[in-house]
Amino acid sequence: MRMRGRVALVTGAGSGIGRATALRLAAEGARVACVDRDGDSAEDTARQVRGLGVDGLALTADVTDERACARLVETIVGRFGGVTAVVNAAGVRSDLDAAPPPAEWQRLLDVNLTGTYLMARAARAALIDAGGGTITNIASIYGVVGGSLSPAYAASKGGVVNLTRQLAVQWGPAVRVNCVCPGVIETPMTAALLSDPAWRETALRRYPLARFGRPEDVAAAILYLASDEASFVTGVALPVDGGYTAA
Ligand code: NAP
Predict the structure, then answer these.
(1) Is 109's C-beta closer than 6 angstroms to any atom of ligand 1?
(2) Where are the domains of the chain?
(3) Does 18 contact ligand 1 (Cβ within 6 A)?
(4) pLDDT (tens digit, 9 = 90+) per residue, 63-119?
(5) What is the structure's pLDDT at 113?
(6) Ligand 1 within 6 A of 151 CB?
(7) Is the pLDDT of residue 146 over 90?
(8) Which of 90, 87, 92 is nearest to 105 (CA)?
(9) What class has domain 7-235?
(10) Residue of 117, 153, 207, 244 marked active site
(11) Which among 148, 145, 169, 167 has a CA at the least distance from the CA of 157?
(12) How far is CA 151 from CA 66, 158, 159, 200, in A?
């Protein structure tokens, strides 16, 4: 019960890594606010959280909306008395396009990078008021090395890696800020790619652990970073990638 007494705010909680993280934090005792732009999927996760015996709240919001982020934090503080762990899992991927048009570039930057910053910024005062807290962002292997995804995705995730370091430097000691860099994880985001046998086979050759990741693999790393076991860890970009970036 590493998160007993804690209140977690998880964005992108309606699907994939965000949902697995909300459930893992709940299983470790946290009360969890499940945020997604799709209210039904957020409610579905919140229901599963409550099924684990802790309080779970569903909230609908778009993380690119500054005011919505501020309202979220107010609502959560009103309901749970504070916020102690923020997980920024809301994100979008793009097509495999080596030269995405400017609108697509902007969409990726808006959600993956600006949305991460806006949510962190909105929660900062509440984390400090709670006597300290954690922010865990989700970057990607494509935030630290080049690859086959779009330059817009790679730039947004590279931005998340260094935003994480910068916030760790400037928001410590009250707030610890870390990120995880997952390899390919089997979620709705990657379903189309992974349904292509040729893509799967080529990609898999680059994974020393010879498999793609599961949302639970990433949730376990996020739990560690959000818990007191990582109390001397801030500003890191932790690969959760089956060895992809080691090769
Ligand atoms: P996912 O299954 O598509 O889940 C992402 C969730 O975020 C969806 O419910 C999505 O809603 C929501 N979302 C998107 N934009 C939002 C916004 N503006 N405001 C609020 N919610 C929003 O994807 P995932 O694979 O779990 O990805 C989670 C994070 O991990 C993303 O940042 C992704 O880039 C990162 N990541 C994933 C992988 C991977 O291989 N899966 C690898 C490395 C990093 P909609 O369905 O409506 O878009």
Answers:
(1) no
(2) 7-235
(3) yes
(4) 999 999 999 999 999 999 999 999 999 999 988 899 999 999 999 999 999 999 999
(5) 98
(6) no
(7) yes
(8) 92
(9) alpha beta
(10) 153
(11) 145
(12) 25, 10, 12, 21
